[in-house]
Amino acid sequence: MLSDDGQALLPVLTDSFDRIGRAMQRFQGGALREGLTVGVVGTFAVRWLLPRLARFREEHPLIEVRVRTHNNKVDLAAEGLDMAIRFGDGAWHGAAADEILKAPLAPLCTPSLSARLDGPQALASVPLLRSYRRDEWPAWFTAAGVEAPAISGPVFDSLSLMVQAAVDGAGVALAPPGMFGRELYARQLVQPFAVLAEAGSYWLTTLRSRPPTSAMNAFRAWCRSPEFRQQTYEPN
Q1: What is the 3-state secondary structure (H, E, C) of 99-116?
Q2: Residue 236: its pLDDT value, please?
Q3: How far apart are the C-alpha atoms of 47 and 178, rounded to whole Å?
Q4: What is the rounded radius of gyration, in angstroms, for the C-alpha atoms of the chain?
Q5: Distance (Å, whole) CA 183 – CA 65
Q6: Which of 99, 119, 98 is nearest to 107 (CA)?
Q7: Which candidate in 11, 96, 120, 132 could, as Cys together with 144 as Cys, close a disulfide (CB 3.0–4.6 Å)?
């Protein structure tokens, strides 16, 4: 049986050995494993990052990536994130931002609905699906050289949900075609007009006040590589 002194030391020693054990688990083949926690806006996580993440793991087997999704509003420090991917113009207070993917917008709809559209002005007669960014449809009509109609379609807080509604025939979504190559190449959706509207890009952000780790530098370099920007779906 443990003595009184042993009982007193037990919690301290248990905690110490547990911490040593966790530290040893970070070593693999004599090399130190690194953790990297990345916050990612939901649609980008599902549609772009996850299909490519296995490749990053192949190139960097000692970096353990932990992905957390967010709705484009994120606090790097408060949420314990090393980096965050978000959509916008790249200007966030206290954050350094690297543009990793342009995301111009275009109308997307079913082939049957597209057959009814003989020009951009015909969009005034069909439901226009909207995100919470109210300036996107007006920006697209401006790029098309057409006066924007009154836009009163349903509003979605998720780009993926909005595009799924378009797949289901609920109306025309305004979304980045490159993000939805699967549906376009399967002909679930088509892009009836070639006009694109620049509304923002996806950016990899970090706190300016935080020195980057080697894992952060590796992830940044990968996100800026041509391989990362390459489409994963090819036309039939």
Answers
A1: EEEECCEEEEECHHHHCC
A2: 43
A3: 9
A4: 23
A5: 28
A6: 119
A7: 120
- For 77-109, the pLDDT digits (tens) are 999 999 999 999 999 999 999 999 999 999 999
DSSP state, 197?
Answer: B
Q: Count the neighbouring beta carbons within 10 Å of the beta carbon of residue 146.
A: 17
202's enclosing H/E stretch is strand 201-207
CA distance 115 to 112: 5
Q: Are strands 83-88 and 34-41 parallel, antiparallel or unpaired?
A: parallel
Q: How far is residue 62 from each of residues 36, 56, 81, 85, measured CA to CA in Å? A: 10, 10, 19, 21
DSSP character for 176? -
Distance (Å, whole) CA 26 – CA 58:
17
Closest among 59, 49, 113 to 86, alpha carbons compared: 49
